Amino acid sequence: MIRRGVLPGRRRLDLVVLGCALSLAVLGVLFVASSTTGTRFEGLATRQAIWLAVGMAAMGAAILFDYRMLLKFSFAIYCVCLLPLVYLLAFGETIANVRSWIRIGHFQFQPAELSKIATALLVAYLFQNEDDARLHGSTLVKLAAIVSIPTLLVFLQPDMGLTLTFLPLLFVGLYFGGLPARGWAAIALIVVLLAGGGWFLLKDYQKARIGTFLNPDSDVLGSGYQVRQSKIAVGSGGFSGKGFRSGTQSQLRFLPVQHTDFILAVIAEEWGFLGIVLVLGLFAALLLRALKLAQSARDRGGVFLVLCLTSMMLFSVVLNASMMIGLAPTTGIPLPLVSYGGSSIATTFLGIGLILGVDFRRFANA
Prior knowledge:
Layout: H1 15-36, H2 44-64, H3 67-72, H4 74-91, E1 102-104, E2 107-109, H5 111-128, H6 137-155, H7 160-164, H8 167-177, H9 181-198, H10 204-214, H11 225-237, H12 248-251, H13 263-295, H14 300-324, H15 342-360
Antiparallel strand pairs: 1-2
Helix pairs in contact: 1-2, 1-13, 1-15, 2-15, 4-5, 4-6, 5-6, 5-8, 5-14, 5-15, 6-8, 8-14, 11-13, 13-14, 14-15
């Protein structure tokens, strides 16, 4: 059926999603430059710009390639993306307490980032032909297996931050798949039991981060140092900030990992409340528009694909912002598109390309 006023085969790109994503990425390059100038990390802004170009190429490819074909081969894509995760557990080099990166020349790549996209594709494919409003037991088992396998592999690296970013995919499948109330009650009980048993599987530094979150003043010079310095940076920025490259916490290097996990604190110090409103406003516009595109997708697979990709980005933004002011434990989750990280920015743009691709083919003939 052709909608009135719309020509068959008419295609367009959503400029709100595209514009917000590019704006955030450019801001990211600027603040990576600001937070690394004069340090041993100087030059990372150039690398970030290179990865931005790679991400835009990936986004373009995702837009041009029919997402329905990707859904059709999603299981094969998923299996291929799991192989590097298995390789890392057996042969990966330990960097910053985890085995998460594969070196390619002078660059490093995190396979777990790409596996998130592959998992989102397979979850969308799982629900593509599910017309029943209630979630069947067989579908629930398949969903749990799809999400839990990469989640476990990443947890064993052990990268707690990336592990958590797979959870929104499970929530999207359960919530929009129609899980009944008793199912949610059973899951809540399982989560409580797993959380208690999972404590004994955490590394000492991960336990310290959780302990600091529960009692921020217990170790202000140790595990609580990052969050304390982040709060100081945020508070000192005031309404309009101290100016670009003029923040004392960031420029005097009091704030650790300021170009990655805590880049939002750098923005708060240098551009103040207005800078935070700008960045979070761009994210809000991007994510709300993406949800709007999910509503108008032409098929159920497209709806779930957009919901999965949007939920992962929303989760990362909320957790990173909460971590910055001590409302969540420090987990190493970067701010999408803004924090330094080549694999993160490239795969985030790949995900945005898939979102745009779903809308791009909304009025396609086939």
